[in-house]
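[audit] Reproducing an earlier prediction to check determinism. Same input, same settings, fresh worker. If the tokens differ from the archived copy the diff job will pick it up downstream; this log only records the rerun itself.
[audit] input (102 residues):
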Amino acid sequence: METITSMVAEKPVVIFSKSSCCLSHSVTSLIRSFGANPTVYELDNLTNGEQIESALLQMGCNPSVPAVFIGQQFTGGSKKIMSLHVRNELVPLLKDAGAIWI
């Protein structure tokens, strides 16, 4: 948990992903389409990726990726992000976190 906290500290948007996950790619593309530049950690390319994935599962991220943190808070996975987008609630979150300035 401390590792995740330090990885998301002082970053407006962080996405924990796997390079082979199409949902992770879709969520990252959606957030970038608003002009945000998320920090993306590909767990399958990190030496401690399995430990981070276990910690994400313990936090309630199921499935573990994509796991999106906006404003240093766990926001959710692909379903939650898409739901926020459909309800026009994603952009205000990104603005409040300082990820976009429009």
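[audit] rerun output stored. Observation attached for the diff report: The radius of gyration is 13 Å.
[audit] end
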